[in-house]
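Input/output pair, single chain:
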Amino acid sequence: MGKEQSIEQTFAELDQIMERLEASDTSLEDSFACYEAGMKLVKACGEKIDKVEKQMIILQEGDKTDGDA
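Output:
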């Protein structure tokens, strides 16, 4: 599949999908395909954000234990 997208790239792709969804000439089938692709991107983005959040918590907890020594 190639290299994983950055969060910024994912947001840019979501913006493009939103523009297609908002276009008045988008067919129902295309709208559904855009919606499905967008939901997959939102899920992937959420997973990336959760991963970063967990890493930050681990780092913060490490800082607390290092400061007590």
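Residues 6 and 53 are 15 Å apart (CA to CA). The chain has one domain: 7-67.
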